[in-house]
């Protein structure tokens, strides 16, 4: 194991064991390197790496602190990686969504409350197939984000948000080129909502799977048919 990797694992161990909590300041470099049995240079490299992925916050002239470790913060690195992917990778992103979104729907069905159901119902009712494609896609994002939040798992919700927002262009492209896409999306959302209202986790998961897989299948077929670079780029959230 590389010395820097060993240093990262030792700092991680301090956090997971509770020796360091969110917001805590790390001991001075000399003291920490000696207590962990590390060279100061390897400790510095480890701190840099952990700063990049938002585990540590280096404040010049003040010290190094453990961040809040909130899911939103820790998943920013993932969002950055997704931004670097090309059009071909958007299919893989949909593949990940196909795994995560049914899981979120299944969890949400077991614990969703009346207020959360009312919010989902409001999102569905305010949307129509005549609102325009970009408006529909925004509704789609909000609908799936609301379900993910209702799952009760913050990490799952943030992960879904990090990857689903990078498929916006693919969904807009589908809406512009595939007949009936808007009406189909709304109908599929209603089916998911109905299953959630009945607290039927398996049915909610099945409808979520059908919904996401349908977009994925269309994108794969469209990409093969055109043989060209599509406007499905996962770079950025805007069309």
Topology, element by element:
Elements lengths: L2 H14 L12 H8 L3 H13 L3 E4 L3 E4 L4 H4 L1 H8 L5 H23 L2 H12 L7 H18 L3 H11 L3 H10 L3 H17 L3 H26 L13
Number of H/I helices? 12
Number of strands: 2
> Main sheet: which strands, in order across?
1-2
Arithmetic mean of pLDDT: 80
Q: What is the number of independent domains?
A: 2
CATH topology of the largest domain: Four Helix Bundle (Hemerythrin (Met), subunit A)
Features:
two-stranded antiparallel sheet; Four Helix Bundle (Hemerythrin (Met), subunit A); about 240 residues; mainly alpha; Arc Repressor Mutant, subunit A
Overview of this structure, please?
The protein is mostly helical. Helix content is 69%, strand content 3%. The protein is built from twelve helices and two strands, in the order H-H-H-E-E-H-H-H-H-H-H-H-H-H. A two-stranded antiparallel sheet has the order 1-2. Helix 6 runs antiparallel to helix 9 (154-164). The longest helix has 26 residues, at 201-226. The radius of gyration is 22 Å and the shape is elongated.
Give the gist of this structure.
The protein is mainly alpha-helical. The chain contains 12 helices and 2 strands, in the order H-H-H-E-E-H-H-H-H-H-H-H-H-H. The longest helix has 26 residues, at about 200-225.
């Amino acid at each position: 194991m590389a010395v820097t990797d060993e240093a990262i694992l030792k700092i991680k161990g301090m956090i997971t064991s509770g020796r360091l909590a969110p917001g805590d300041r790390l001991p001075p470099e000399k003291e920490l390197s000696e207590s962990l049995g590390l060279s100061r240079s390897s400790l510095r490299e480890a701190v840099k790496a952990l700063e990049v992925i938002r585990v540590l916050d280096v404040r010049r002239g003040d010290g190094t602190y453990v961040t809040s470790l909130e899911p939103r913060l820790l998943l920013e690195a993932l969002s950055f990686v997704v931004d670097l992917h090309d059009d071909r990778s958007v299919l893989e992103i949909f593949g990940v969504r196909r795994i995560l979104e049914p899981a979120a729907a299944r969890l949400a069905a077991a614990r969703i409350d009346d207020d959360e159901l009312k919010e989902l119902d409001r999102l569905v009712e305010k949307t129509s197939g005549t609102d325009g494609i970009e408006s529909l896609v925004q509704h789609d994002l909000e609908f799936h984000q609301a379900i993910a939040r209702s799952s009760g798992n913050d990490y799952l919700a943030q992960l879904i948000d990090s990857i689903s927002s990078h498929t916006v262009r693919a969904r807009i492209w589908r809406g512009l080129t595939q007949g009936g896409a808007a009406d189909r999306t709304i109908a599929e959302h209603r089916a998911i909502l109905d299953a959630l209202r009945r607290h039927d986790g398996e049915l909610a998961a099945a409808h979520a799977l059908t919904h996401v897989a349908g977009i994925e299948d269309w994108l794969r077929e469209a990409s093969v048919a055109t043989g060209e670079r599509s406007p499905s780029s996962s770079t950025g959230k805007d069309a």
